[in-house]
Amino acid sequence: MTHAELLELAHRLARDAAHAIETVRRAGFAIERKGDASPVTAADRMAEGIITEGLLLATPDIPVVGEEAFAEGHAPEVGERFWLVDPLDGTREFAEGRDEYVVCIALIEAGRPVLGVLAAPARGSVHGGIVGQGAWVEEGGARRPIQARRPPAEGLHVLDSRSHRDAAATEAFCRNFIISGTTRMGSALKFAWIAEGLADLMPRLSSGIMEWDTAAGQAVLEAAGGRVVDAAGQKLRYGKPGFRNPGFVAWGRGDVCATDSRLRAAPSDDRVWRVTALLDDPLDAAALLRAGALVAFATETVYGLGADARNGKAVAAIFEAKGRPHFNPLICHFPDAEAAWAEVHADDRARALAAAFWPGPLTLVLPRRADCRIDLLAGAGLDTLAVRVPAHEGALALLRAAATPIAAPSANRSGRVSPTSAAHVLQELSGRIAAILEGGECAVGVESTVLDLAGGGAALLRPGGVPVEAIEAVIGSVGRPLPLRAGAAPTLRSPGMMLSHYAPSLPLRLEAQSVAPDEALLAFGPPLPGAALTYQLSEGRDLREAASRLFAGLRALDQPGLAGIAAMPVPGEELGPAIRDRLARAAEPRK
User: How large is the average pLDDT for residues 293-308?
Assistant: First the structure.
């Protein structure tokens, strides 16, 4: 069966289940309690029976995981493809006589929901969609297409849970945005509202949400152009042991024009209160950069926070947005080597390295030319400049469209974990910058290697995406000076030289051979037992995979209620030194 045929199957069964639920409601029902104290009724069980029987009859090769069967200890083995069913999401609302309960059916493939249906029995509506093909709502027997909206100029409309809210966390999260209003409601119907363009944002930041609570809603919302991500900025994955989800945030389109003055509000502290745009067109991002705005963009290493490198006010805004020390220079990005050589003196070694590794994760510190047009602030007033050509098609398209070098450190608050997805940037800088040019997840995941060639020798200032052994194969021996401490007086010649850099808020313990019950574990290879929370860098001990997951892992483990993070040892070959360097910086006490 095709996805379209499977969606129609789910739609038919959801409507049958909805009819059964309304029959039970009209006849009256008793409320029981499951082992987790959540309510259950005859309507839940009857609806799940209808759905499960229908799915297994039509698709006997696809397992079905239902909420009520799971609660009674029945959980089939699942593989790449399975159904997730919540027969009556919002049982509390159903029992209280509200109309905010829904039937949820989703198909999971390779850990992602690919299609889903949300049927609201009391409202007589059904929302459905196939990711990548679109979404619709059916009311009164007629269907119409739906799409998540661009937030209106007055701000974002937030949906909050009626029964499972974490008020403090939600309010703290929402302080990053202009909020036009908030609606409290129950069930996965909130996903449908955002998909239909009736609201813009739903933070559900507490953990303990089950996969069947979100799968259908996520499918419909993503089919309508929205997104659902966890605290690490990653799309929720399905089929996890226990079928338990972390906290998450559901977004509408979010690509409102952030430079519109109507979006600004009087700040109550040092924040710049505006909505950050999510863009997918490099031409739009380039126009913002040329106007002096800040735009975050993806590279192969991490997301960078870009400004026109020739505009001193724009460069100063980078430091303001990041809260960054003004003595730390920035890396200037160019579309090709010749554009970089127009601003710096390149000797034979620099040209050989550029030929070998550009575009790519290598930054060269070289003397400024006398006619260099890069603003002095971008280089911290030094006679040198850090330059590179990124190996990311989106970044190169932006550089070509902007027609100016882009000064860009990592797009996070100073001293925080570097971002490897657009969602990470939103967590760090939403409301502080004009826009984010979406470019997917970063392939390398650690910053560029920084090499100082300005003094005649060659000194490694920061290990990164290009191993030093590969550099030495091109130009010979490279010195390895220690990075400076945060309070050190000597001038910093490149980004990333302070030890306390990219740090989570929790203390980080390196070379862990054991883990305490109140610690999170950053695992490399088979995980140590006993951790409260585990993030796997690479089960197969693949250093490239570990590097690409490092910053997402630190973010995912940086959770309240834990005593710290224990990091398992990482070997010192290939990308290992770069990973170990970032971990050492993250473990340094913050000043």
Answer: 94
pTM for this prediction: 0.50
The total of other beta-carbon atoms located within 10 Å of residue 50's CB is 20
Q: Which two tokens stand for residue 554?
A: 């630190």
pLDDT band at 207 (very low <50, low <70, confident <90, very high): low
Distance CA 404, CA 430 (A): 25
What's the fold here for domain 3-139?
Answer: Fructose-1,6-Bisphosphatase; Chain A, domain 1 (3.30.540)
CATH of 267-475, one of 3.30.390.10, 2.60.40.10, 3.40.50.1580, 3.90.870.10: 3.90.870.10
pLDDT of residue 522: 95
The sign one gets for the Cα dihedral 260, 261, 263, 264 is: positive
- Joined together, the tokens standing for residue 538 give 């690479």
Q: Does residue 290 sit in helix, strand or coil?
A: helix
Angstrom distance (rounded) from CA 336 to CA 414: 28
- pLDDT mean over 65-72: 91
Average pLDDT, the chain: 85
Strands 227-230 and 248-251 come out as antiparallel
The pair phi, psi for residue 128, each rounded to 5°, is -145, 165
First to last CA, the chain: 59
Every domain of the chain with CATH number 3.40.190.80 lies at 156-251
Q: What is the DSSP letter of 262?
A: G
By the 8 A CB rule, do 190 and 202 touch? yes
Q: Does a cis peptide bond (omega within 30 degrees of 0) precede residue 359? A: yes
The whole-angstrom separation of Cα 585 and Cα 96 is 53
Do 516 and 503 contact (CB within 8 A), yes or no?
A: no
Locate 327 and state its tokens. Answer: 């003595």
- The string of pLDDT tens digits covering residues 113-122 is 999 999 999 9
